[in-house]
Amino acid sequence: MGSIGNTPPPLSLRPEDRLSKLFAENITAKTLRTAIKHLRDNDPPSNYPEVVPQHGPDTGRYRSRDISFWTCGFFPGCIYSLLERLIRYPSSMEMSADNGTKLSMLRIKLEELGRRWSDPIHSQSCLTNTHDMGFIMMPHMRPRWELYHDEAALQCIVTSASNLATRFSPVVRAIRSWDEDIFAIVTSGRGKPGNYIVIIDSMCNLDLLFYAAAHTGNTRLAAIAETHARTLLTSHLRPEPSKPREGFFGRMFSTSHVVNFDCSTGEVDEKLTVQGFSATSTWSRGQAWGILGYAQTYAWTGKAEFLDAACGLAEYFLYMLETAPECVEREVQGPHGELKRTGRYVPLWDFAAPVNDFSPPLRDTSAGTIAANGLLLLSQLLLSQVNHVLSARYREAAMRIVEDTLAHSLSDEKVRLSWDSDSRLAGVESDSTQIFEAILRNATVSNSPEGAQIVRDHGLVYADYYLIEFGTRLLCERR
User: Fold this and answer.
1) Superkingdom of the source (predicted)?
2) What pTM did the predictor assign?
């Protein structure tokens, strides 16, 4: 079984060298192809890419969801994360000759496409019926503000945060995730009318509140975010038995997916799942949302209880990867013909689900890429605490997860940018007749018999977004 702590990181390699596929032209070209193709008969966009089936009549092609769906912000987020690389770290973009001219042309094209995919989402800032305002807005509105000083993008963030804050209950001391009608749908009618639903995913929407508070001086937004995070410390985090972990001396935590509160008393009424295996299992993406969300909360507040939570969640996630059964690994051929084992650090969809129900085992690459972002942020935060051992281990763990994910789940189809004789961008060329529009395979939205829909083993827009964003976060370490 693998152990991240036993293998020293190859310090001589830059991220671009060790994770070359993460910075390859294929990533940019696939994003560009999807951006252009899915504007056909959809301009301005009212539907946004979500899942790419690996099987069936729609194999390899994005299915889209309405702009009001919670995933709409991730595809424009992919474009703006690539733009951040182009603007701040142009040398990271793998290109052929005439680099300067081509980079400029590519930047101009992505800027145009980014605006076209992002602009319609301004209209969603008025929503008060969803807690997912952070997912909808931050992946693209934040870089629009930070890269271009786009005042309209900042105002969109502020408006969205104010509307998210209307969902806060001072009795429950948390932000409502799902309204009753949504809860009835996602639980196939099993929802209890009148109860107050909070899901672990909500931790990653708090960044919107903290960000808006920092830019407006509205401390109430930050106070709501901090109160919500503190409530979930006891309602959603489950203490696990301690294990010896290098550099870590705290408590490990797993997570509940859904907590049903009594809205009149704030007491926990029920714990269940909609996307995981069972109410008592650990849905891997939920655990990843917790790692990233608590790391972000600690970054904004500096309060030790949130760092302890983020580290405890991270340790349990890594422990479950390291102790997974041997069948999660498979042999693949390396770049020089050598055989190597991959798959251990590509998370199972749920850490407690029977692993033999699927062959090969059912994964969720989105859980891995989200967790990797949380681990990298934790590593950077721990440096300020002069905890070099844990910082180095989390950075190496994040790198290992992404490295393994690329080896195991990168789509077989590779594409490249096409240029005319004057170095003008002409389009995208594929090396295969089998198109697969997502970058990664093996993402599972849900495989729970308790939920309303089973969507497993697909390409998924937020698996790709967090993969791209991880590369951009790595580059930021140079600054």
Assistant:
1) Eukaryota
2) 0.95
C-beta separation of 343 from 353 below 8 A: no
Do 385 and 358 form a contact (C-beta atoms < 8 A)?
Answer: no
The Cα–Cα gap between 269 and 195 comes to 8
Q: Are 68 and 124 in contact (CB under 8 A)?
A: yes
CATH architecture of 4-476: Alpha/alpha barrel (1.50)
**Quick one: residue 98, left, alpha or beta (phi over 0 = left, psi -120 to 50 = alpha)?**
left
Per run of 10 residues, the mean pLDDT along the chain (length 479 residues) is 47 70 95 97 97 92 97 98 95 68 92 98 97 98 98 98 98 95 77 84 98 98 98 98 91 96 94 92 98 98 97 98 95 79 96 93 97 98 90 97 96 94 86 94 86 81 98 86
The structural domains of the chain, with segments of one domain joined by +, span 4-476
| Cα end-to-end distance, the chain, whole Å | 36
Contact between residue 312 and residue 253 where contact means Cβ atoms under 8 Å apart: yes
* Per-residue tokens: 470: 């991880």
